[in-house]
Amino acid sequence: MKEFVYETMYILRPDMGEEDVDTAINKYKTLLTEAGAEELDIQHRGKRRLAYMILKYREGIYVQMNYKAPGAAIAILEKDMRLTEDVIRYLTVKQTVREEEPEEAEAES
Fold first, then answer.
1. pTM for the full model?
2. What's the CA gap between 17 and 43, in Å, rounded?
3. Any bridge partners for residue 47, and if so which?
């Protein structure tokens, strides 16, 4: 299976306690790790005001995850996020990874 670099941003309900937020973050981290994800970087962005109301919420707790994983891991993650009531919105984006081009040989003298 080919692996790609992904970024998933999800918004949790604002009425969740700090313990519940940590539990949700660890749940998705474990889910990805078991599905074969590597180089997992999680950024807890905190509670922010939403641009528009989502499910009658004006605020949400933002979490961003960057990772390298096979495509099947994304399906597992998004299915779980879709079925839980804690996540009010999510988005996964496949990032373009530019391979570093080798330095050209020194200029001919």
1. 0.81
2. 17
3. 61
